[in-house]
């Protein structure tokens, strides 16, 4: 195994552990704003994947960038739909605020 792959796996598992610890300690009341914030961060990954797909680095890079654009788009759109649904659950019945 190359040193770059080992370092990448180390960063991945460290990020996964940190993310799990952060999410598990957030009170339920703050899940909706946190989710909306992470959707905004996912928009940054969409921009990065667009740059990778259109960077003319090679065929493999373009294909992987296109897959990343698709995955990031699904993540952003799905996240905003779920956040919208959660926010509708907090509204009172009858249309009054």
Molecular structure report:
The chain has helices at 3-25, 31-53, 59-90. The model has no long low-confidence stretch (mean pLDDT 85). The chain contains three helices and no strands. α2 runs antiparallel to α3 (59-90). 80% of the residues lie in helices and 0% in strands. With 97 residues, it is mainly alpha-helical. The protein is flat and about 55 Å long.
Task: Return the string of H and E elements.
Answer: HHH
User: What does the oligomeric state look like here?
Assistant: single chain
* Beta-strand segment tally: 0
Rounded to an integer in angstroms, the radius of gyration calculated over CA atoms is 18 Å
The major pleated sheet works out as: none
Strand content: under 5%
Contiguous uncertain segments of 5+ residues? none
How many H/I helical runs?
Answer: 3
Shape: flat
Class from helix and strand fractions: mainly alpha
How much helicity do the residues have? Answer: over 70%
- Overall pLDDT, averaged? 85
List keywords for this structure.
single chain; flat; 97 residues; mainly alpha
Short description:
80% of the residues lie in helices and 0% in strands. It contains three helices and no strands.
Secondary structure topology:
Elements: H1 3-25, H2 31-53, H3 59-90
Helix pairs in contact: 2-3
